[in-house]
Amino acid sequence: MILVTGATGNNGGEIIAALVKRGRTDVRALVRNPDKDVAQVAALRAPGVEGVQGDLAKPETLGEALAGVARMLLSPVKPNAVELQGNAIRAAKAAGVGHVVKFSMMGASHWQSCITTTGRYTLSGHQEVPMTTSEQSQIRTRMFARALGPFFTIVPTTVAVRGSYMQTLFTEFKANPMWPWLFGAILLIWGLVIIAFHQYWRSPAAVIVSLVGWFLAVRGVLLLTVPQAYNAAGNAVYSSGASAVIWVLFICLASAGLYLTYVGWKPAPRRPEAVVSPTKDRSDAAGD
Predict the structure, then answer these.
(1) Predicted confidence band at 259 (pLDDT cuts at 50, 70, 90)?
(2) Residue 145's pLDDT band (boundaries 50, 70, 90)?
(3) Helix H or strand E segment including 102
(4) Integer Cα distance of 136 and 284 in angstroms
(5) Mean pLDDT value of segment 131-153
(6) Rounded to whole angstroms, how far apart are CA atoms 284 and 280?
(7) Domain edges within the chain
């Protein structure tokens, strides 16, 4: 038996229609208020579709609807999506449902917990299959790489190409004491954001992202606290004629940016689906 929540909504109704079209005769439609949604309930009437009343906001009403159900499709709800979907999943566990599909209309993020993430989950032994720490770290690294990669590709390359103009910009930068404060604060806050949300060191891309966070934070602190030392270091570099060293440094940064861009924007590998525990109608699961 398959239970579809939100049966009177656009998504739930279309899913039920698709299941019926594929020959399913064991579909149960969860309706919150059949007296109010008369037209929608009438549209659900079809061979193999059983209507049942239940409200995700009232978990005590879900027991009868979930009796004998092997799979549940959880349609998007709002507001209070986390609370309502949590009620549905807890009721499904209590009823022995072995397979829950969370369908999201608004999109989904792997950073969120299972009740707000689109995907398939096993409730075998009444335990959700969680995303591993390694998977979470890889996803966060990809997200940061998508932003940092293009930035470190474009900006250092531009600096390297226009290297002769950089000394003029540096002179103007140190001439106005407002710029060290402004850029120091910007660098510090972005460095702290990366440090707070990305402290992973298990892959080259993760190491680069984490180091960038610390580099930005330290550089921001130096600009805020000792701008004179920062200016003195810049003067020493330009007066010694070591502009070639700066050029090489920025080329290296651009190369790291290209690598992060590749890591962030390449197609993500498909995550293996969770193995569904045996249920009464598992024998025909291949036809779902």
Answers:
(1) very high
(2) very high
(3) strand 99-102
(4) 33
(5) 86
(6) 10
(7) 2-131, 134-265
| pLDDT over 70 percentage in the chain | 74
Rg of the chain in Å (alpha carbons): 28
Does the structural domain 2-131 have CATH classification 3.40.50.720? yes
**Beta-ladder partners of 49:** 27
Which has more confidence, 102 or 283? 102
110 and 135 in contact (C-beta within 8 Å)? Answer: yes
For 30, the 3-state DSSP assignment is: strand
Average pLDDT score over the chain: 78
For residue 117, is it left (φ>0), alpha (ψ between -120 and 50) or beta? beta
The CA distance from 281 to 288, in Å, is: 11
Kindly tell me the sign of the dihedral angle through the C-alpha atoms of 228, 233, 238, 243. negative
* Residue 222, both tokens: 């130096």
**What's the rounded mean pLDDT across residues 194-212?**
93
Q: Sheet containing 27-31: which strands, arranged edge to edge?
A: 49-53, 27-31, 2-4, 71-74, 99-102, 119-122
The predicted structure's pLDDT at residue 6: 83
Return d(Cα 106, Cα 28) in angstroms, integer.
24
| Nearest alpha-carbon partner for 114 in 131, 139, 98, 127 | 131
CA distance 242 to 232: 14
Band (pLDDT 50/70/90 cuts) for residue 110 is: very low
Helix axes 243-265, 133-161, angle to 10 degrees: 140
Q: Is the pTM higher than 0.70?
A: no
| Separation of alpha carbons 160 and 244, rounded Å | 9
User: What are φ and ψ of residue 168, in 5° steps?
Assistant: -65, -45
Amino acid at 73: L
pLDDT at 149 over 50: yes
Cross-strand partners of 99:
71, 122
